[in-house]
Predict the 3D structure of the following.
Amino acid sequence: MSYNVKLEAFEGPLDLLLHLINRLEIDIYDIPMAELTNQYIEHLHTMRVLQLDELSEYLVLAATLIEIKSKMLLPVHEGDVFDDDGTDFEPEEDPREELIARILEYKQYKEAAVQLKESAEERAVHFTKQPSDMENYGSIPQADPAEELDVFDLVSAFQKMLHRRRLKAPLSASITNNERSVGEKMDEIMGVIVRKGGHCVFDELFEEGDTGGLVVTFLSILELMKRRDVVVRQQGNFDRLLISLAIGGTEG
Amino acid sequence: MNDSKRLAAVLESFLFVAGEEGLTLKQLAALSVCTEGEVTEALDGLLAAYESREDSGITLRQYGGGFQLVTKAEFAEDMKRLFENPPAKLMTQAALEVLAIIAYKQPVTRVEVDEIRGVKSERAIQTLASKGFITEKGRLEASGRPILYATTPYFLDRFGLNSLEDLPPLLLENEEEEDTDLFLTKFQDMLEAQDEEGGSDA
Amino acid sequence: MNDSKRLAAVLESFLFVAGEEGLTLKQLAALSVCTEGEVTEALDGLLAAYESREDSGITLRQYGGGFQLVTKAEFAEDMKRLFENPPAKLMTQAALEVLAIIAYKQPVTRVEVDEIRGVKSERAIQTLASKGFITEKGRLEASGRPILYATTPYFLDRFGLNSLEDLPPLLLENEEEEDTDLFLTKFQDMLEAQDEEGGSDA
């Protein structure tokens, strides 16, 4: 079970290295290899709970660090390197150069990722609407959905829908929470019928749009009928239903 | 900021996002944390502003129990240009959504597709069938015996897939916190319904 | 009616209908039968009007090359009542890093991404593809013909970018100046190297 635990959320060996460089306030262009290597390996020990495949990636970098460190310990090329005027200076390649380049490149993208995230967050405060349904206007969609499209457009379309649905899903839930209970709704319906002079067209009670509300209204009417507080009549087939206050309710 | 103007602006943004579905007075009041009276007043103001502004292409409409933003009737002719010659992107999104759902969840009924999308998909299904991307695949043994839809070999061909297994996996891992919302969970359940019980991921 | 105001109104109604799909300048010009210059001017006017009106809840933005109407940022908190669940954490740090690398270096292979990060990125790439942020873009003409990845227009939209040129420039740590520093530093190192070697670990 402990295999899965990550001590700290490092995104890989380079991320750990960057973290150490920042923490130790190391000049990235002048890395003290011995210190950094020690710290890195020490950190690996405390992170020994890493998954094996991740660990191997950390170990590869550890090996690189050790290699660089040992290269730097080798005696510097004798001879003309230390000429006073430097004319004969032959720039020996710094064994750290490649590492520095890698760290810098990784750092660039790590910072770019932060900016991307900020950019996405800025975008996320603006909400949009679904395209209007053109079928309402009588147009016939004839576009070939596969024209110059690939399977990733399919995925994009799907994700777009998920995103939209994700935003919308709670709407009905939050509205339903505001709905009255059946008891409250029954009182409300009785009030409406009384105000309308004792009669009310069935449909008039169902003017609200959301399903939850409609269900509550319907249940309330059924309950009122059951209690014989109201009577529902229909003149003929397909006629509108009329709800009336029950005269001299038979309750009791 | 002037409070009544702010309320008008908030109502406009709610109505905008709700689009064609519209919102009832009650919903608007709940969402804006105002009384229905205040909302009614603000909506009157909005409507007056839309109608008086010459540079406004939209206006407010009341229907049944609700309100919705709509394009002004006077631009019907211009709208017609859009509907008669719609940009491909506008037309394909619906069809692609339906196709994606059918591809991943086949065989599936129209009602199920509607439920996942939250809108009617009949038209898109017709279009897809007439293009040969999907086909009927028997009927569900349930009341009404609804038609089951599945993708065709032509679909695979056009999207460069060898088999349905080549469809990129949809993101259904719990790892991504983003997706632990109600809807996706529900969708996940639907997809995995046949499979295992949701055992503990120790 | 004032023509430029009418154009603004017509554009608003098109943009309203298109919603999140947006419309490009070119499409708007074609649909409104105006020049792109006229449309640009009218859009500028619309934007200024939205931004100055206190009773306006919407405004204009350009994402992924298309113009779209969106709700104003200042009402984000109110909008959250409509959605309840805040629209989520974006994605993991790993996925963001991979996305950044692909965005800047596209088209790029998985191996290149792995090398920059020093870790395997396969899973993150899968996540990004299934979210529709990246797509396969052909194959590299090299041994194994590895897949090349690139970002999608959907990525631009969700990250609030109009085009890839809008990506913030990578911070190059002032390479020019640093180069000379590096040289000097290096030289110093070498001078100091001898001293250090004796003392430290071995």
About this structure: Residues 92 and 124 of chain C are 9 Å apart (CA to CA).
